[in-house]
């Protein structure tokens, strides 16, 4: 059995269309939407609406962790714009292209920048969306936990710690624990390019210790200090920043 796993697609529909080649199934760990490409400030919803110069400034402020100033600039740019309508239209455009690229079968969960209420409109037959749910693939039980925890960036799908922990608890025993964010381990949460710790989940780490799945798979941290780490019986793997690599991580058994 061969499963390809991707995360942090961020608008890479061309790569996504090939991500399942040679696999029995594709697993997607979320963040389909591209609001702003930190490597190429001309790509994403934000520069499409406000231009590259504004995107340059937002990235500069966020990289410097000047989040209050970044939010002030964002509020000024959005003044007089129907934000809900503009974002909805742009996200729908991206989702139409990205969901059309998913192969059959695909098993997917949400990232912190995704918009879950829109997914049912675009998930075609053969795409199974799971969040706090499990599914059997080739004799192994995969459990999925979508979204992220509260952060200064205030992503569209951030949930509180209690809600996130409840989704993990609902999974029970699994062979492969799939999430968008990593367990709360410093080496797995630190981004070496952004030079900051991203949010990891203590509840995920507790589940790894208690359930002892074969694998814990995740993304979210684009340039992690450690891409793999064994915790007890569990191999923890950051499956990679698909937006930049177009290369899925391969799981075979």
Automatic annotation (TrEMBL):
Domain of life the protein comes from: Bacteria
One GO biological process term: cell wall modification
Transmembrane segments: none
Residue ranges occupied by any Calcineurin-like phosphoesterase domain in the UniProt entry: 1-224
A single GO molecular function term of this UniProt record: hydrolase activity
Segments forming a coiled coil: none
Alphabetized InterPro entries for the sequence: Calcineurin-like_PHP, Metallo-depent_PP-like, UPF0046_metallophosphoest
Identification of the protein by name: Metallophosphoesterase
């Amino acid at each position: 059995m061969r499963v390809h796993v991707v995360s942090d697609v961020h608008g890479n529909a061309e790569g996504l269309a090939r991500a399942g080649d040679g696999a029995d199934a594709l697993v997607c760990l979320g963040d389909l939407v591209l609001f702003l490409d930190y490597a190429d400030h001309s790509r994403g919803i934000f520069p499409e609406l406000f231009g590259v110069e504004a995107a340059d400034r937002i990235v500069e402020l966020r990289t410097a962790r000047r989040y209050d100033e970044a939010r002030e600039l964002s509020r000024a740019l959005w003044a007089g714009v129907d934000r809900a309508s503009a974002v909805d239209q742009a996200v729908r455009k991206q989702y139409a292209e990205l969901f059309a690229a998913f192969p059959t079968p695909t098993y997917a969960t949400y990232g912190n920048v995704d918009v879950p209420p829109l997914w049912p409109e675009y998930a075609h037959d053969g795409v199974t969306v799971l969040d706090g749910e499990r599914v059997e693939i080739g004799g192994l039980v995969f459990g999925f936990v979508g979204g992220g925890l509260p952060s200064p960036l205030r992503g569209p799908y951030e949930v509180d710690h209690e809600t996130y922990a409840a989704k993990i608890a609902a999974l029970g025993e699994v062979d492969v624990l799939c999430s968008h964010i990593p367990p709360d381990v410093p080496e797995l949460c630190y981004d070496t390019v952004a030079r900051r710790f991203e949010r990891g989940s203590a509840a995920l780490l507790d589940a790894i210790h208690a359930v002892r799945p074969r694998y814990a798979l995740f993304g979210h941290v684009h340039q992690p200090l450690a891409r793999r780490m064994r915790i007890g019986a569990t191999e923890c793997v950051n499956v990679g920043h698909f937006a930049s690599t177009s290369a899925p991580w391969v799981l075979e058994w």
